[in-house]
Automatic annotation (TrEMBL):
<protein>
    <submittedName>
        <fullName>Uncharacterized protein</fullName>
    </submittedName>
</protein>
<dbReference type="InterPro" id="IPR027417">
    <property type="entry name" value="P-loop_NTPase"/>
</dbReference>
Length: 407
C-alpha cells in the first residue's frame, strides 16, 4: 500500500472527540506525558499473543499487577481501529509485515493514552483521565458532555452512575456483563465491548516509568506479529508469551461470546447468515478467508485455528518466545506465573502475589467451570470432524492431541 488507511466517519468522530478531551480536559500531567513520550519509549515490552477466548484477559490482568510493569487498562486493539489499521482497509486482521503507510508516531502516542504504572495506592486522577480518553472510542455516536463527566468523576461519582444518567446501559462494561441483556447492542464502536474501566492499582506515568516493562495484549496481534516487530516496535526489546488453550474450550467460549449479543462485536462486514447467530455484526477477530454464511461453530473453529497458525508461523521474528498453556495457568497457577515472571525478568512483586491468590474475573461470558465445553459437546465435535489439515497441524504442534487434557 502506498497511502495511509482510509478513515471512516466513525473513526473521524471518535478522533475529533478524543483529541478535544486530550487537549482540553485531561490533567496537565497526562497531556505532558503524551506530548513527550510514545509507547516505544519503554525499555521492554511483554506481549501476550493468543487466540480470542484463550485466557489472555485473565493472564494480562494478573501480570499488570506486577509493580515493575506498566499497562493499558485492557486491549490496545482499539487504537489500531482508530487509526484505520483494520478491516475494511485490509481484507482480514492480517497486516503485512512490510506495511508502513500509517502514522507511526500518532499510533504509538495513542497506545500510550491509557497506560499507567502499577502501584498499590493508585491514583484517582489517572483513572478519571483514562475513563475520559476512552469514552469517545466506546460511544463515538454519542454527544456526551465530557467536561461535566470529568468534573463529576473527580468529585467522586462513579462512572456507572454517570452513564446510567445518560441512558447508557452498564451491561456494556466488563464488570457488569454477567446476566441477561434485554436486547442486543448492535451499534458499531471503536473499542470492542464489553468495555473495561480503569483499575485501582494504577497511577500516572513519570519519566522513570519507561524503564519498566510495558505489558500488552490484543487478540488481533496474532495476525500482526511480523508487522509489530518490523514496523511498530522495530528497536524495542520484546518478549512474547504465546498463550494456548485447548480447541474445545476456546471454541465454546467463542460461541458463547458471539451469541451474547451485547459484546465482542468488531466489524460490520455486511449481511451475515450464520446458523446459531441472529446478530448483524462480526464478533472477535477476522481471520483470512472468513465467510458470512454457514455455521457459527465453524467460524469459531476457524478463529481458533487461524490465530494460532499465524502465531506459530511468525513467532521466529522474535528472539524470546515462551509458550504457556492456559490450562497450567488455572491448575498450576503459582509455578506458571513464576515461570512467566522469570522469563520477563521482572522479579518479585507482593501485589502480584496477592492477585495470583485471588485473581479477578475478567471478560467472562459465563461463570468459569472446568470442561464447560461439554455442555455442547456434540456441536463442537461436529465442527472438529469437519476440520481440515490446518487445524490438525495446529493441534499437533500445540500438543492438544490428548482430549483428556481438554479442561
Amino acid at each position: 500500500m502506498n497511502s495511509e488507511p482510509a478513515i471512516t466517519g466513525l473513526q473521524n468522530a471518535a478522533r475529533r472527540k478524543y483529541e478535544h478531551i486530550k487537549e482540553n480536559i485531561i490533567s496537565d500531567d497526562k497531556l505532558s506525558t503524551l506530548s513527550k513520550y510514545r509507547a516505544d519509549d519503554f525499555d521492554s515490552v511483554l506481549l501476550i499473543a493468543s487466540a480470542p477466548r484463550g485466557g489472555s484477559s485473565l493472564l494480562f490482568d494478573i501480570l499488570r499487577h506486577h509493580e515493575k510493569t506498566c499497562s493499558p487498562d485492557g486491549e490496545h486493539g482499539q487504537w489500531y481501529t482508530l487509526n484505520g489499521i483494520c478491516y475494511p482497509a485490509f481484507e482480514s486482521d492480517i497486516v503485512p509485515a512490510d506495511f508502513e503507510a500509517f502514522n507511526r508516531e500518532q499510533l504509538l502516542t495513542d497506545i500510550l493514552a491509557d497506560v499507567g504504572a502499577t502501584e498499590r495506592s493508585g491514583d484517582r486522577t489517572h483513572r478519571v483521565d483514562n475513563a475520559l480518553v476512552r469514552l469517545p472510542l466506546q460511544f463515538p455516536h454519542r454527544d456526551i458532555p465530557y467536561e461535566q463527566v470529568h468534573e463529576e468523576l473527580l468529585e467522586g461519582a462513579s462512572l456507572d452512575e454517570i452513564l446510567t444518567g445518560f441512558g447508557i446501559s452498564t451491561l456494556q462494561y466488563d464488570e457488569y456483563t454477567r446476566g441477561d441483556a434485554d436486547s442486543p447492542f448492535e451499534t458499531e464502536t471503536i473499542e470492542d465491548r464489553p468495555f473495561v474501566s480503569s483499575h485501582d492499582h494504577k497511577r500516572s506515568l513519570t519519566a522513570d516509568d519507561f524503564e519498566r516493562t510495558l505489558v500488552l495484549k490484543a487478540s488481533v496481534d496474532a495476525y500482526r506479529l511480523s508487522w509489530i516487530r518490523n514496523q511498530l516496535f522495530p528497536e524495542t526489546d520484546i518478549r512474547v508469551v504465546h498463550l494456548t488453550r485447548n480447541p474445545a474450550a476456546s471454541i465454546n467460549g467463542l460461541y458463547d461470546g458471539w451469541r451474547l449479543n451485547r459484546g465482542f462485536q468488531t466489524y460490520d462486514v455486511g449481511a451475515l447468515n450464520l446458523e446459531g447467530y441472529d446478530g448483524s455484526l462480526w464478533s472477535y477477530d477476522l481471520p483470512p478467508n472468513w465467510f458470512n454464511e454457514g455455521k457459527l461453530i465453524d467460524i469459531c473453529l476457524a478463529q481458533w485455528t487461524q490465530a494460532h497458525r499465524h502465531i506459530l508461523t511468525d513467532r521466529d521474528v522474535f528472539e524470546d518466545v515462551r509458550r504457556i498453556r492456559f490450562e497450567d495457568v488455572i491448575t498450576e497457577t503459582d509455578s506458571t506465573i513464576e515461570e512467566i515472571i522469570e522469563f520477563a525478568g521482572l522479579g518479585e512483586s507482593v501485589l502480584l502475589s496477592e492477585n495470583v491468590e485471588n485473581p479477578n474475573k475478567v471478560m467472562t461470558t459465563k461463570e468459569p467451570k472446568p470442561a464447560r465445553w461439554r455442555n455442547r459437546e456434540d456441536l463442537i465435535r461436529s465442527a472438529l470432524e469437519r476440520a481440515d489439515e490446518t487445524y490438525n497441524g495446529v493441534v499437533a504442534e500445540l500438543g492438544y492431541t490428548e482430549e483428556s487434557e481438554w479442561i
